[in-house]
Amino acid sequence: ENVLTQSPGTLSLSPGERATLSCRASQSVSSSYLAWYQQTPGQAPRLLIYAASSRATGIPDRFSGSGSGTDFTLTISRLEPEDFAVYYCQQYSGPVWTFGQGTKVEIK
Amino acid sequence: QITLKESGPTLVKPTQTLTLTCTFSGFSLSTSGVAVGWIRQPPGKALEWLGIIYWDDDKGYNPSLKSRLTITKDTSKNQVVLRMTNMDPVHTATYYCAHRRILPDVTPFDHWGQGILVTVSS
After folding, report:
1. Distance CA A99, CA B98 (A)
2. Bridge partner residues of B74 (DSSP)
3. CB distance A44–B106 less than 8 Å?
4. I need a surface site. Which of A56, B50, B102, B112 has the fewest CB within 10 A?
5. In this complex, is the C-beta atom of A95 within 8 Å of any C-beta atom belonging to chain B?
6. CA distance A99 to A25
7. Strand order in the sheet with A4-7
8. Tens of pLDDT along A74-90?
9. A20 by DSSP, 3-state: which?
10. Are the beta carbons of B46 and A101 separated by less than 8 Å?
11. Strands B116-120 and B11-12
């Protein structure tokens, strides 16, 4: 099983600031099949980024993804009030998919 | 417009079998490249991938659950069914179904249902 470790667990920032979230895999993620989701309280996750760096339909360009192999990053260039949420990475290469444990982005 | 919705019991007893149905619209599971998966999330905890079924009836299961989990599809009804045997209180979670495609490009879960909270308790 490819274990995904997200850091930090919690990120305390102010609106307008830049957020950098990390996702590290225990094994290389082939074809960069790495996704990022956003989840707000009481809601289903929403796909933000797939294939490590492709934005999903309707996702603002302040969200960007990068990385390959075992190290991936989600960057939010300027935090908007609606961006304070929990973010999960997921690898979807191979027959078994896994999620990270999540990073909470909270208002400082 | 793709939509999915989970339905089934919100309370099951320990050792019982959970059966959840995902009813969807806006796509067909008979179309090449389409799949529906299941994910669960215990209260306050992270997401866990359960399994997936493809248009060609290929399936994938979380190895830790494989012996207890079955996913089937009814293409004529636009439904996918999840069956999980021997439920335990630790399996209390919100269960989601979600859409995936691998044609024309490969995506993970790009549309999700609203989720259904299933509590396991006697």
Report:
1. 15
2. B79
3. no
4. B102
5. yes
6. 10
7. A4-7, A19-25, A71-76, A63-68
8. 999 999 999 999 999 99
9. strand
10. yes
11. parallel
Inter-residue contact B98 to B39 (CB < 8 Å): yes
Q: What is the mean pLDDT of residues B105-115?
A: 94
Q: Which residues of A12-40 are buried (b: 16+ CB within 10 A; e: fewer)?
A: ebeeeeebebbbbbeeebeebbbbbbbbe
Q: What pLDDT was estimated at residue A30?
A: 84
B3-43, pLDDT tens digit by residue? 999 999 999 999 999 999 999 999 999 999 999 999 999 99
| Inter-chain residue contact A88 with B48, CB threshold 8 Å | no
For residue A4, which of A26, A37, A34, A30 has the smallest C-alpha distance?
A26
Taking residues A41-58, report their average pLDDT: 96
CA distance linking residue A4 with residue A25, whole number of Å: 5
Give the pLDDT confidence score for residue A94 in this predicted structure.
80
Count of helix runs (H) and strand runs (E) in chain A: 0, 11
Residue in the block written with tokens 């309707």: A58
pLDDT at B46 over 90: yes
Say yes or no to pLDDT of B104 above 90: no
**Dihedral angle of Cα A40, B115, A51, B55, to the nearest 10 degrees:** -170
Please name which of B87, B97, B3 lies closest in space to residue B41, comparing C-alpha atoms: B97
Q: In the predicted model, is pLDDT for residue A95 greater than 90?
A: no
Q: What is residue A32's predicted lDDT score, i.e. its pLDDT?
A: 85
